[in-house]
Design a protein that fits this description.
370 residues; TIM Barrel; globular
């Protein structure tokens, strides 16, 4: 089968190969539905390779760096032991319960949450160390993008997979007690980028997305330019237009939950397409290439160990470096609780520094790219 590269980048293949039962309630389709996976081409940036073979030029990066790396983090949880957040989660599950058994299970869960929370009173929460991410990245002269969700109170309709924290929840950051809002402002003040990680049901709802964007922008006091949908919940036929109309400059959703690789055959940022109106949009996609959970989780995805995961990262990095593209990496902050996952991130940072990559946040990389 010959691949039409324009059709690929416009999202026509993706739209064509969506599952028949695709709906807002369906679990997110993953690499199994991707045309490049079927053709054994998922681990190659074939669009970029073809572009260069036709005489195209590689992107030029600052200081003569051979390729670029975007470091990103999806902030799904800010605390591990929070009775407030557990109650919010149980409330969502109660609203979504479809039978008496599930309702009973939610009720039992409330009791377990109270017991669990009481056992951790006056103990430091293992997630209250966000400054370690900043320190690790600063040690190689880099910064990243943190995608925060807009807060429980700013989301109209909740899905059971949605985040549970509110912006007023209290955490510890660099040894200081503060609200999530205050931590967001501090991370922003130090030069890291804050992006929006909107709720599950926002993927096709412009008003909801704008509401959530406004909530986070009020915290920051300035515009947000980058977005990544929670759980990578995305519809190529609708979401690009919604993101564009909401005023985002960059999206970085288009990767996989259960694999690594090039979902659209490219590691070059490109302008997305409105399939409904047959028109190019202003919003630029910075494709997600590597997600730690896709490699390291034991219950889904590739289910790799650290050594093999590092080999995958190196293989993908070499492919990106060969075309002078952008390697976008996602490491969830919860990974810091797992020494193997955190250790691999540290090793990856040192490796990328050794490869002479230009490393930064999405906004920084795109400023250099444009």
């Amino acid at each position: 089968m010959n691949i039409d590269y324009n059709k690929l980048l416009q999202g026509r293949y993706e739209a064509e190969f969506l599952p028949n039962d695709f709906s807002p309630e369906r679990i997110v389709p993953d690499f199994g539905f991707n045309i490049l996976n079927r053709l054994g081409l998922l681990y190659r940036p074939i669009v970029d390779e073809n572009y260069l073979a036709q005489g195209g030029k590689k992107p030029v990066w600052p200081e003569g760096k051979p390729f670029a790396v975007c470091l990103t983090h999806d902030v799904d949880h800010v605390t591990l032991h929070s009775l407030k957040q557990s109650i919010r989660s149980r409330s969502t599950r109660l609203l979504n319960a479809t039978d008496r058994l599930k309702t009973l299970q939610v009720g039992i869960g409330y009791g377990k949450d109270v017991i669990k929370a009481s056992m951790h009173i006056n103990k430091k929460d293992p997630l209250h160390c966000y400054e370690r991410w900043l320190d690790a990245e600063a040690s190689i002269g880099a910064r990243s993008t943190f995608f925060f969700w807009p807060g429980w109170s700013h989301v109209t309709k909740k899905h059971i997979s949605d985040c549970e924290y509110d912006l007023s929840d209290m955490i510890l950051f660099a040894g200081r007690k503060m609200s999530v809002s205050e931590m967001i402002k501090e991370i922003d003040r130090q030069g890291w980028e804050i992006g929006l990680h909107p709720s599950w049901y926002s993927f096709d709802n412009l008003n909801e997305l704008k509401k959530q964007k406004d909530a986070l922008e009020r915290v920051l006091g300035h515009d947000i330019v980058s977005v990544r949908q929670h759980y990578l919940h995305y519809d190529i036929r609708v979401t690009p237009k919604i993101h564009d109309e909401a005023g985002f400059a960059y999206d970085s959703t288009l990767g996989f939950n259960d694999n690594v690789g090039f979902r659209f055959g490219t590691c070059y940022p490109w302008k997305l397409y409105n399939l409904q109106q047959e028109a190019q949009l202003n919003i630029v996609e910075v494709p997600l290439i590597v997600q730690e959970g896709a490699m390291l989780r034991r219950d889904k995805g590739l289910r790799l160990d650290n050594i093999t995961s590092f080999k995958y990262v190196k293989q993908i990095t070499e492919s990106v470096k060969n075309v002078g593209g952008v390697l976008t990496i996602l490491w969830h902050p919860t990974a810091i609780m797992n020494q193997d996952w955190w250790g691999l991130y540290s090793a990856v940072l040192e490796y990328l520094k050794g490869e002479n990559a230009y490393i930064g946040s999405i906004a920084e990389i795109m400023k250099a790219f444009e």
